[in-house]
Amino acid sequence: MNKAKNRLPNATKLDNYVIEKMLGGGGFSLVYLALDKKSGKKTVIKEYMPSKIAYRTAGLNIEPIEESNRDALVQGRKSFFKEASILAKMKHPNIVHVINFFQANGTVYMVMDYEEGANLQAYIKARGSLTEIFIRTVFPQLLKGLDAIHSRGLLHLDIKPGNIHLRPGGRPLLFDFGAVHQISQSRKNQESQVVTPGFSPIEQYNLKGYVGPWTDIYAIGATMRACIEGTSPVAANTRLERDTLRPASVAFKKRYSAPLLEAIDWAMEVDPLLRPQKVSEYLEIFDKEYTIVDGSETALDKFVNNFPWIK
After folding, report:
1. Measured in whole angstroms, how far is the alpha carbon of residue 92 from the centre of its chain?
2. What is the pLDDT of residues 112-164, one digit of tens each?
3. Which domain holds residue 230?
């Protein structure tokens, strides 16, 4: 089943909202631009729609493709509802704000503030290698948001460029908390985990892997490296067998400062024990003095040229 076939038609009414158009989606959800009839404001609505196991009926309900898929559909709805309830309680300038969530059409909907800007993954694809000042502007903000998540005893576990939204002025938003977990105090079997090659560390490949703040920090480091390299890093399970990934401090030393490259390498250690164990510990490295290596333009000029939404 493709996304276009499973999408809600434009002008569909949901609770107090009217669907204007589909913005996109993945294997488990569809995302729409909608109008809040009460406030007149634009909103973004995320709908739980697992296309591999479910389809949309003529009456717009979500039903399992096979009866054997029903339990998985029900469990997925519960997880989606959990994600919405967690985000509705989170108030941080760098974490997506959920303003409402509800059930309808045999599924769950999450309503979020509409924010101007662009997706980091699309931005990397369009621009290729991004500047140091861009990275130093965006990532400390993301880390502070991540620290707020960890302080609530939660892990994101799916940080990657596709889950980061860039607003005007270089203000990032972290979203898509569908893989969120409680921080465990033991190595007992984890809940099923999302794995994104290149961004998920080795402990996420094993349900007995001991995930923690260091797991999200690896993904942050990998995302920074993707901003520099313009592509996803080598997958962690491949690196464990034979690590061919050149340290950033060697591969990019002619273009970026040593403190930044060392920060990326530290976050991307294959061994979890060698990584920063807390976000607060990792943030300290961004306070180190540095010099822009490529001085052909001023830092501000480079930032404006590579990030045109700045205001």
Report:
1. 15
2. 999 999 999 999 999 989 999 999 999 999 999 999 999 988 889 889 999 99
3. 118-306
